[in-house]
Amino acid sequence: EVVWEKEMTSRHMYGDMRGLVMDAGTNRIWMYADHIINEVVVLNEDHKVWRSYLAKGQYDTALLYCRDLTQREHVLTAQADHYLESKQCELAASIYAKTKTRTFEQVTLKLLGLGEKEALMRYLSDKLDNMRSSDRAQLTMVCTWLTEMYLDKLNGACAAERPDQYQLVLEQVRHVLQDHVKNLDPPTTYQLMLQHGRIDVLLYYAELNGDHERIISHYMQRREWTKALQQLAIANDAKLYYHHAPTLMQHAPVGTTNALIHATRSTSFELEPRKLMPALMRYDAATKGGSGGGASGAHLAPNQPNQALRFLQHCVKNLKNRDPVITKHLVSLLANSQDDEGIQTFLNEFGASGMHGWLDLHYCYRACQAAGKKEACVMILSLMGQYGEAVDGALELGDVDLAKMNADKVQDDPEVRKRLWLKIATFVVQDKGDVQAAMALLCDTERSCPLKVEHVLPLFPDFAVIDDLKEAICDSLQDYQRHIQALKQGMQDASKTSELIRKDMNELRSRFGFVKSSDCCRLCSTAVLSSGLYLFPCQHALHMQCVEHYMVRHGGLSSADKKRVKELKAALYAQDQLQSHGVGGGMPHGPPAPQVHGAAAPAASAAVDYARQQAELDDLLASDCPICGIPAIRLLDQPLPQLPGGSSGW
After folding, report:
1. Residue 388 near residue 420, CB atoms below 8 Å
2. How far is residue 443's CA from residue 422's CA, in Å, rounded to a whole number?
3. Single pTM value for the model
4. How far apart are the C-alpha atoms of 305 and 414, rounded to whole Å?
5. Which residues, listed in sequence order, are joined to residue 38 by a DSSP beta bridge?
């Protein structure tokens, strides 16, 4: 084959061409003529070598000499056509997937016409690897077609009852789904798997796709509650818990409660117990209906503990949940339970949070009262501070110790405390007729019973034998005797004290002090003898008007005291006016007024009132020295008064 040709036209210059020769030492080619020698330089000698190898059927070697994509496409297409003609369809399909010379439709129709499903699956699988990610529609179509073919192959292996082949094909299907899960359309793929009856593959695809709702619904339809709970724990989705908890709580209460408790401790999502109330209420209804043989109650074990109660206790105790809906339902379940210990333990632990906290004691009382939990009602009344009703309830139960415990809680009102203890004593004596119990009640030193034997004696019948009370009666009489002696001693001490007080008062009447004519009032700095004055034990002499003015403004008198000072001054002034008119004015006309027997009595009474009012005024104004006494001390924490000149005046 001639691959290069050149015509030598200048024969007169070169002469005749004589031949070509190669230098064996340098591998250089020389062309010689009659008159000249030329070197022949070979360039791109192998640019068409691929065609030679292609013609010989040496496709791999031809690919080595291909210099561009066009040449490579040509070789691969020829190789694929050769393999297809020789019935090596899978190899042909794999090579077709790498070329674009044959269109997708041409290859698939040709493989379908030959009935080569395996080759077609190979072509589709390899074609997916060579497609661009932006071709979303093509990717989805090819992935769906490939998935359907694998599902059909899986059904064939299952029908042939070949376990090894079935497992191999199943692994291939899972591998395809795992590689192309993002390219598949979920509704179409689910429908395709359902049509082929491949539920196991559907669940695997749903797990890859994160469709936990479908997986949980499938297990619940098949009543496989344990697997549903396991998938629920894997999902970590609070909405799934809220949606499926009612059904799961009804059919698998223990496992569901364990799952809910575990979910409330999770840090990946937050589960709100309030939104689980429908599930708990439905479980409670199923529990109550289980004894009737209903369909819902048939799933519950006869001696199974209340799982709703267990979950709510976890919420209140461990999660510190104080939602009123949660706490009230918990109280309702505890009140309606067969065991009284549950509600009593709850009240002992959380009852202190009732009156001013999160626990509604009024609701607790109503629930326990409706359920007939009388002892719990007594505990709630005690927590609410209604000790009288608590004692009545305890005595109604016949529990004297419980009644004494509630009566002993009254500490601030001795009369109420005594009345409650007397009520307990009445119950012990009259209802039980137990003298020994009455004695034990009086001798109860642990709770310091305020009753004495004289309080209990009227409760006994007229002809009751009180031999057991002799010792107590004697002790009571001795106590009275000691009390009388103490009263006598107190009266004697009081008499001595009164004598000492009279003596001190007599001494005070004779007490006096000296005021010099040169002394000045410490408040106004004028002569102190110019008007009425107060002389204090500290020897401070102050004008009465100055003391009054100072005490009203700075002495710390209350509003009531200031008002009383004005009233006393007005009364004293009125009496002074009356006295001045009666003594100095007289009656200028007519005979003198006749003297009436006993007329000195009103005058003496007026003098006593005057002295009493003056003494009260002195106590208000001059009970202590305003210069160095309590009024001065009270001014220590008061700011300095404002002077006309401002702060510079100080």
Report:
1. yes
2. 14
3. 0.59
4. 47
5. 31
